[in-house]
Design brief:
Layout lengths: L1 H20 L3 H55 L2 H12 L16
């Protein structure tokens, strides 16, 4: 019988410890709600941070595209410019105007 008392005393002691840890059902609902809200907040925070990085990357790409567009517009403007066409003909094709002499320099060894 003594072992029974000891056993029941141990159980009572453990039960008292559990009683301290026992939380009411409403508290569990509140804790679960807080955890849910916290997890949703963290997910949204991570999503917003990712979207901000995407926006920054898109802005950099936009600036690059605008620079390239400006360069292409400059080249397009030179397409119909007679002075630019003449300059390219002289440099790339080696053409000269009638009455001009073409001089070619030969470098010595």
């Amino acid at each position: 019988m003594r072992t029974r008392r000891r056993g029941s005393a141990v159980v009572r002691h453990l039960w008292r410890g559990l009683r301290v840890l026992r939380i009411r059902p409403l508290a569990w609902v509140v804790i679960a709600g807080v955890c849910l809200i916290l997890s949703l907040y963290l997910v949204r925070f991570a999503t917003i941070a990712h979207l901000r990085a995407d926006i920054a990357h898109a802005e950099i790409e936009q600036r690059r595209a605008l620079v390239a567009q400006e360069e292409l517009r400059d080249r397009l403007d030179q397409k119909d410019n007679p002075a630019a066409i003449e300059d390219l003909a002289r440099k790339l094709l080696g053409l000269v105007k009638p009455g001009e002499e073409k001089i070619i320099f030969i470098e010595g060894k």
